[in-house]
Design goal:
Blueprint lengths: L3 E5 L7 H18 L3 E5 L1 H4 L11 H14 L8 E4 L5 H10 L4 H5 L2 H7 L7 H15 L5 E3 L5 H18 L7 E3 L32 H9 L20 H9 L2 H12 L5 H27 L2 H30 L5
Parallel strand pairs: 1-2, 2-3, 4-5
Helix pairs in contact: 3-12, 4-7, 4-13, 7-8, 9-12, 10-12
Organism: Deinococcus rufus
GO molecular function: tryptophan-tRNA ligase activity
Function: Catalyzes the attachment of tryptophan to tRNA(Trp).
Amino acid sequence: MSRVFSGIQPTGEPHIGNYFGAMQNYVKLGREYGKQSLYCVVDLHALTNPAAFDPALLAQRTLDMAVANFAVGLDPSQVIFFVQSHVPEHQELSWVFTTITPVGDLERMTQYKDKSGQLESVPAGLLMYPVLMAADILLYRADTVPVGEDQTQHIELTREIARKFNHSFGETFPEPRAVYNKQALRIPGVDGQGKMSKSKGETSTLGLFEPMDSIWAKLRVAPTDPARVRRTDPGNPDVCLIFDYHKLFSDLDTIQMVDVECRRAGIGCVDCKKAVMTGITAHLTPIQARGEELRDDLDSVRDALAQGAREARAIAAPVMEEVRTKVGFLKL
């Protein structure tokens, strides 16, 4: 039977990039696969991000990410949802995979090259990040992995690690495939500086639980078509991040209206932003209300995470025992 696995880092406030890029897929696949779908707050991975990691905030951010996933519709009674560090088999399998993964393969990872180039001292964990990710996936013999397109190279490495282990120690792991949310692979940051990312700070993101007045303050000054200098200048929605947000939040009639009216200067950028704000408000308000309910009952959230860890370990433990046997570890 097919099995789904994906993880999300607790390195900042959950934002609409997380929602459209990952969480929506979690909900959709969770309904389809039920308990054969596992979703994980990858707090171990968070340690590899020096720019975002904060030991004083890690536990709270982990809890916040669970709240966010539940608030958008992921039902912890229907899927397996847990925290990575609560299942120690992740680290154990990662070490086994480390011993069969060439350093050269890891140094060729685009994300590693991008992130290490910004650091004066590169932690070894940043290099080993994709190996731990492979362990996360293969520990559950998952063959379906909903990820953002920036993780494609890591999924390919995971497939290669599975092949190497199977060749060396016998058939054990499937080769997983990536599944993308075709509606929104890359959500632009509200600052107009590339992809929306927690690592760029709050100026780049629109938070799932951010107050509406704060979201509007960011949208109001967000860049639009740079060629549209005056209200009377026709615009090009295809190069405007606000139009990208319309595709996410607005109904079809509004999207079509903006597409036509912007091109003929029939609508100004402020009115266009007000129209998308209407869609954002309608979309996020129920999510924020559900988030408040969950924060008022955090014990139930913690109970759900504990149950998820037990269910995850029930799958992980026999797989890890099989790995120990195949690599030849001594049994007592």
